[in-house]
Amino acid sequence: MAELLIRLYQIITYALSIYSVLLVIYILMSWVPASRETKFGRILAKIAEPYLGFFRNFIPPLGMIDISPIIALFALQLIGQGLTPVFNFFLRLL
């Protein structure tokens, strides 16, 4: 059972890392607006926009600068760091 929890932890943290990289790529694509019109840009938008849209609902842009993606990445990192104590707790129970 402990091996299963360790493997699950590794998969989740790896998925969060990949998602963070995809978010950074999507954010950087905003500097070149035509890049979001490509097939890759549209696929990336379907992956990133639901998560980023959640933060955009609560954090308005400051003039021309949208800081919600920075907060979204920070929140994703906190979620990843918060998983470690949770999985350690469950491993100690086994």
TrEMBL record:
Similarity comment text for this entry: Belongs to the YggT family.
TM region positions: 12-32, 70-91
A Pfam family recorded for this sequence: CCB3_YggT
Signal peptide positions on this chain: none
Keyword Membrane: yes
Organism, scientific name: Sporosarcina jeotgali
Protein name: YggT family protein
Keyword NADP: no
Record key words, sorted: Membrane, Transmembrane, Transmembrane helix
